[in-house]
Amino acid sequence: MAYTFSMNPRFHPHLVNGPQGDPVVYIEFKFERRAILFDLGDLGPLSARKLLKVSHVFVSHTHMDHFIGFDTLLRVFLGREKELFFYGPPGFMRQVEAKLQGYSWNLAENYRRGLEIRAVEVHPDHVREARFPIQRAFRRLAEGETRRPFHGRLLEEGSFAVRAAFLDHKIPCLGFSLEEVRHLNILRTGLEELGLPKGLWLKALKEAVWREEDDDFPVRVWTRDPARFPERTFPLGFLKERLVKTTAGQKITFVVDTILNESTEKTLLELARGADLFYIEAAFLDAHRERAREKYH
Ligand SMILES: [Zn+2]
Fold first, then answer.
1. Distance from the alpha carbon of residue 169 to the mean position of ligand 1, in angstroms
2. 69 alpha carbon to ligand 1 midpoint, in Å?
3. 55 CA to middle of ligand 1, Å?
4. Taking a C-beta distance cutoff of 8 angstroms, is the pair 173, 257 a contact?
5. Same structural domain for residues 141 and 275?
6. Distance from the CA of 61 to the center of ligand 1, in angstroms?
C-alpha cells in the first residue's frame, strides 16, 4: 500500500458529474475505506468498490435530480452487513420509506447479513431518526424511532463533524459543511530521527490523539515484517511531541438550489466561512437574476 503522509489532506472530495449532470460529491477518507456523499444524483460513474465505502449520505432536498441515486446505492449494499445513514429535509423519512416500499422484499429474510437503512429527517430545531432493517422487509421499526434536538450539527465524530443549514428553494433545502476539527500531520523528520518505520500504526497513533488519550497511553509501533522491525511500544505523549504536528482542519461546503435573499445569504456565509473548498450550484448568470429568483435558484 502506498503510504504517503505529512500535510496530506484527509478528505478527498470529487464532483462526480459535470455541470449538466445530476449532482453528487463523493468525499473519500484517506486510509479509512470510507466515504460520504453530498447529494444523491447520478451515481453511474462510481464503481461498486467506491460506493461500498459510503457510510453517510447527505441529501439537500428530494427533487429527482438530487435523489435519483438512492436505488443504485441500495442495490450495491443488498446482502451486506451495514448501517447506512441518509440525512434529508422535512418529509424525508416518508420519502425514504416510499422508495423502499416501491419494491417487493418477500425474499428479504434470505439475506443472512443485515443491511439497515437509517433515515434522519432534519427540522430547524430537531432531528428524527427511523430504522428500516432488511430482515423486516425494510418496514419502519416503530420501536426504533428517536428524536433529538438539532443545533446545526448532524454528525459528530471525534475528529470531524457535518453541519447543516436551512436554505430556501420554495421547499426547505439543506446546505452542508464537512469540518475536520483539526488535522494531524506526521513529521517525516521525526520518524527518521527516532528510526521508526512508516505503517498502519500511524493511523492508530492519530486516532489516540483524536480520542485525547493520556500521555502514558501505550502505542504499538509495528510493521508487517517483524524480522525487519520488532514491535515496540511507546507512550503516546512521547510520540505526540516528536511526530505529530497539528494544523487547521479541512472544511468542505456544499450548497445547491437556493434562492439568494438577505436571510439565505447570511446562512450561506455562516455555513461556508473558512471553507477550503466551496461547491455551489450556479444555474443562472447574474444577468438572469430575476428568472433565478422566480425559480428559487
Ligand atoms: Zn431542486
1. 7
2. 15
3. 24
4. yes
5. yes
6. 7
pLDDT in tens, the chain (297 residues): 333 344 578 899 999 998 889 999 999 998 788 999 999 999 999 999 999 999 999 999 999 999 999 999 999 999 899 999 999 999 999 999 999 999 998 877 777 778 999 999 999 999 999 999 998 899 999 888 999 999 999 999 878 999 999 998 888 999 999 999 888 889 999 999 999 999 889 989 988 988 889 999 999 999 988 888 899 999 999 999 999 998 888 999 999 988 888 888 899 999 999 999 999 887 666 667 777 666 667
Model pTM? 0.81
Same domain, 84 and 145: yes
Is 236 inside a domain boundary? yes
Q: What residues does the ion ligand 1 have nearby, CB within 5 Å?
A: 63, 257
Q: Which residues have a Cβ under 8 Å from the Cβ of 170 and sit 6 or more positions away? A: 259, 296
In 3D space, the residue among 157, 159, 158, 155 whose CA is nearest the CA of residue 176 turns out to be 155
- Residue 196 is classified by DSSP as P
Residue 211 CA to residue 179 CA, distance in Å, equals 17
Asked if 15 and 155 sit in the same domain, the reply is: yes
- Count how many domains the chain has: 2
